[in-house]
Amino acid sequence: MKFDYLFTIVFSFIEIILILAIKGFSYPLLPLFLLLIAFNYISIEDWKTGFISLNLNIGICVLAVITAIMSRADIAVIGMNLLCFVLPFILLDFVFQKFVNKEKDEDRFLIGGGDIILFATISFLLSFANMMVMLFVASLISIIVSKFIGKSRVHFAPMILVGFLVAFLWGEVLLSGLLGLIMNAIYG
Predict the structure, then answer these.
(1) Which has the least CB within 10 A, 108, 124, 148, 156?
(2) Could you give the number of structural domains in the chain?
(3) DSSP letters spanning 58-79
(4) What residue numbers bound the domain in which 166 lies?
């Protein structure tokens, strides 16, 4: 357990140094650092137990809202992210639990409520395009990890964290490079 705390703090320092080196001081550092500590701890907890506590999720949502307010995030982008990325997962989870998983088998679910709350939290911090990058990277990593460990079901919070970091740090670069490749392929 002590290793989890130590790993969380050390990894959060590395992440904040990366963010400062790449993004500069465009985000409030204290809430962002606390958010990274919470993200890392949630990822460890989800990887080990498959469960994310509601208290941690509520805390991380509050930190995300504070960070968004302090960095003057665009309300329209946050609303669009919630509508396009969070609401579909809520509806998918509801439909799956109501109609597919009638015997309430805990091992049969698509995505957990903690992961959906993580998506909601991240929607306060990323642009719409970067949310797409985050979801793509997280999904790709979870496919690779599931093939590597030989399980069809993996805990998604660590993949969401990696997807968030990639999108937060290099999302615009990845998207512009991808669009450049597509345009080059179409127009030569």
Answers:
(1) 148
(2) 1
(3) HHHHHHHHHHHHHTT--HHHHH
(4) 2-187
Q: Between 54-70 and 29-49, two packed helices, what is the crossing angle to 10 degrees?
A: 150
* Per-residue pLDDT tens listing for the chain (188 residues): 666 777 777 778 788 788 778 777 777 778 888 888 888 888 888 888 888 888 888 888 888 888 888 888 888 999 999 999 899 988 888 887 777 766 665 555 567 778 888 889 999 988 999 999 999 999 899 889 888 887 767 788 889 999 999 998 898 898 888 888 888 888 87
Task: Provide the whole-model pTM.
Answer: 0.82
Nearest to 52 by CA among 62, 42, 39, 61: 42
Q: Which tokens hold the place of 185?
A: 């392929």
